[in-house]
Write a structure and sequence with these properties.
The protein is of the alpha/beta class. 47% of the residues lie in helices and 15% in strands. The strands form five sheets. Strands 4-3-9-10 form a four-stranded parallel β-sheet, with helices on both faces. A four-stranded antiparallel β-sheet has the order 5-6-7-8. The chain has a three-stranded mixed β-sheet with strand order 12-11-13, with helices on one face. Helix 2 (82-91) crosses helix 3 (95-112). The two termini are 37 Å apart.
Length: 464
């Protein structure tokens, strides 16, 4: 078996293999601009690349033919930006303090979501001298020029500009708009360095005080952390143009070593109604809100039951369904294992799981394998068989997808005696024909996340 990933640049699925002799995969993923609270769209992005990273690290441990040995994962923070400057000024705090606050909050949410920490988290403000040197290199190679204290990249100096987004330069030119404050030689050229404005943070440079443009930042952070070429560059589909297109142009012009990235992996965006979820638009649901209401496993289940290249639509109903799905896996993974010892085909489940993940990270199919395994666990347990081996496999495969199934179990165990008491009280009320009070008690339990199922054998409950 071999892992095949979709590559936006070639528009094909190709086998993944490392480009460096040390067989380490180098993966750079565009991170957040921390000017406001992070939303569920950011969570989707984080979970998608967490699952990719987890699978890339797990696969060599179960298949010795895997051509790589591990992953170096770099994710940046764009901590200098027009939105950061504007919001910090309106809030009356420094841009640096605002960025620090939101980055700290984001890190806490990543931990709660069970997202593995990246190998490195570079920030733009830590690398401004490196950015200046990179821009000087582009000027020396004739790929950029200074104009009135600004520096611009010469788009027409790159013959294959537009190859990622499949856009033609002439088509771009017809729709180009020129800001009258900019001093470009060509409307298509984009800023690498911006002259300082009054009241804004700035740094010294050969062209005067100023700050980096957006696109140059990721080129430099990737180059400094991972080198001239990388195996995987990840990000949201909204970054394909112009951001990633411009990254390719800058980096390949500077290094002279195409391709900049062997694979360009882009996740589809999260919709809220008919629109993309966006802080700038204001139609957001925060990560904190979702974690508080549904929990981390429900959020992860919601994300991975859609393919990463297929748009998802956020709704409370979808999260509720995802929470129930996570409960099913949790109950199968940690339920009673007493009974007769049995053997089972562990390899078949693992092979089906890997076949799904090797098919361009097909997490919906992989999740279906987990539910199949959970169903078989429940059946064998009902037949009085010892399912501990099956459960270990289920927990292991759930871990590859990043589920953290243990924490909610302790919560359920702590609540179980009290819920059992209330369920028994409801049974007594129904026996005494106190139906209104019994229904009221049921409604209160449901509101607290306790789902009741009445049958001829009694009442069973699950905790969402």
């Amino acid at each position: 078996m071999v892992l095949r990933l979709s590559d936006t640049l070639t528009n094909t699925e190709r086998p993944l293999a490392p480009i460096y002799p040390d067989r380490m995969l180098r993966m750079y993923v565009c991170g957040i601009t921390p000017y406001a609270e992070s939303h569920v769209g950011h969570a989707l992005h984080a979970i998608v690349f967490d699952v990719l990273r987890r699978y890339l690290e797990w696969r060599p441990t179960v298949d010795e033919t895997t051509p790589w040995v591990g992953v170096t994962h770099v994710q940046n923070f764009t901590d200098i930006d027009d939105k950061l400057i504007d919001r910090s000024q309106r809030m009356g705090i420094s841009m640096f303090d605002l960025a620090d606050q939101n980055i700290e909050a984001y890190f806490k949410q990543l931990t709660t979501m069970n997202v593995l920490p990246a190998t490195e988290y570079p920030r733009v403000t830590q690398l401004v001298p490196n950015i200046v040197a990179f821009i000087e290199g582009l000027i020396a190679k004739g790929a950029a020029y200074e104009s009135g204290g600004d520096v611009y990249y010469k788009v027409r100096s790159k013959d294959d500009y537009g190859k990622l987004s499949k856009r033609d330069i002439d088509d771009l030119l017809s729709g180009a708009r020129v800001d009258t404050t900019e001093l470009k030689d060509d409307p298509l050229d984009f800023a690498l360095w911006k002259t300082a404005k009054a009241g804004e943070p700035s740094w010294e440079s050969p062209w005067g005080n100023g700050r980096p443009g957006w696109h140059i930042e990721c080129s430099v952070m990737s180059y400094e952390s991972l080198g001239a070429q990388i195996d995987i560059h990840g990000g949201g589909a909204d970054l394909i143009f112009p951001h990633h297109e411009n990254e390719i142009a800058q980096t390949e012009a500077y290094t002279g070593q195409p391709p900049f990235a062997n694979f360009w992996v882009h996740n589809a965006l999260l919709q809220l109604g008919s629109d993309k979820m966006s802080k700038s638009v204001g139609n957001i649901v925060s990560i904190g809100e979702v974690l508080e209401q549904f929990g981390a496993d429900a959020l992860r289940m919601f994300v991975i039951t859609s393919h990463y290249r297929s748009p998802s639509t956020y709704s409370a109903e979808a999260l509720e369904a995802a929470a129930k799905g996570a409960d099913r896996l949790r109950e199968a993974a940690f339920g009673d294992t007493s009974g007769l010892a049995m053997t089972f085909g562990a390899a078949s489940y693992r092979e089906k799981f890997m076949a799904a993940m090797d098919d361009d990270l097909n997490t919906p199919r992989a999740t279906a394998v987990l539910f199949e395994l959970a169903r078989d666990i429940n059946r064998e347990r009902a037949n009085g068989n010892d399912t501990s081996g099956m459960q270990r496999l289920l927990r292991g495969l759930c871990g590859v997808l990043g589920f953290n199934l243990e924490a909610p179990v302790s919560k359920k165990q702590e609540a179980a005696p009290f819920i059992d008491l209330l369920v028994e009280l409801r049974r007594e009320l129904r026996t005494a024909k106190q139906y209104q009070m019994a229904d009221s008690l049921r409604d209160r339990l449901v509101a607290l996340g306790v789902e009741l199922r009445d049958s001829s054998e009694g009442t069973a409950w699950t905790l969402r």
